[in-house]
Specification:
alpha+beta, Immunoglobulin-like, 3-stranded antiparallel β-sheet, 6 helices, 8 strands, about 45% helix
Length: about 250
């Protein structure tokens, strides 16, 4: 008697495979929408006080729990697809890709949560600056959308002020080394780039590299006005940044 419901479930799955795929994609869509909303809200929280950060942290934690529940459901459906050899292989592959994307988004959300927790409960010790995030994403016009976040660590009860210098290093068609300032290849950046923040600040825009130029690395220099805060000079491989960001 216990065999019958198992066969019934298999028959339903075989006859209507699109429902599993549709529900899986819909679940991933919900996850992406929640994370996108959280990200946009987080970008505006820089000037807020600790009470706002506390509320945002609670919101992030709730979204992580919801996203993890969706991932568990996606895993269950993916397992059912794998067990059913008569289901279209493309549907199973697409669901697996959606699951991997959802898991990646949750990891990013957890990283953001950790960052905002550090704002509410900063580390003890002297103040310092850090390059929190660097993201490069190719756009439809052939350029790169960039996002650079600089944050303050340790005691963040005072504003950090100074300048940031970003340059792209690479070679031309002849293999000769060439360096461009960010202000040379982006209309969204002024020279010099100034910062003034208590928690963090984003620098965003689009860069359009010259034809024939092959970028190899991105160099970021952060020069604070306060001599007691250590300056930053870091270099990032272009291939690493375009593969997912630093």
């Amino acid at each position: 008697m216990s065999i019958k419901p198992i066969r019934t479930q298999k028959i339903i799955t075989i006859q209507r495979p699109g429902l599993w795929l549709l529900s899986g994609v819909f679940a991933v869509f919900l996850i992406v929408i929640m994370i996108a909303g959280a990200f946009e809200y987080g970008r505006r929280v820089a000037g807020y006080d600790s009470a706002d950060a506390d509320a945002y942290i609670a919101q992030l934690q709730a979204q992580i729990e919801e996203s993890q529940a969706e991932i568990i459901e996606l895993n269950r459906k993916a397992t059912m697809l794998e067990r059913n050899s008569r289901i279209d292989g493309d549907a199973s592959t697409q669901l697996k890709e959606s699951l991997a994307q959802a898991q990646s988004e949750v990891l990013a959300l957890k990283k953001e949560l950790s960052f905002y927790k550090s704002i509410v409960a900063p580390e003890q010790g002297s103040r310092s600056l850090a390059i929190q995030t660097i993201q490069l994403k190719p756009d439809a016009s052939g350029g790169y959308a960039y996002r650079i976040m600089v944050s303050q660590r340790g005691r963040n009860d005072r504003f950090a002020r100074g300048t940031i210098d970003v340059s792209i290093e690479g070679v031309n068609n002849d293999g000769q080394p060439v360096t461009y300032r960010l202000s040379d290849v982006s209309n969204d950046t002024k020279k010099p780039m100034k910062f003034g923040f208590k928690y963090f600040q984003n620098f965003e825009g689009v860069m359009n590299l010259p034809d024939g130029f092959i970028p190899q690395s991105l160099r970021v220099k952060v020069n604070p006005k306060n001599s007691k805060i250590k300056a930053i000079d870091e270099q990032f491989a272009w291939s690493d940044l375009t593969a997912g960001g630093a």
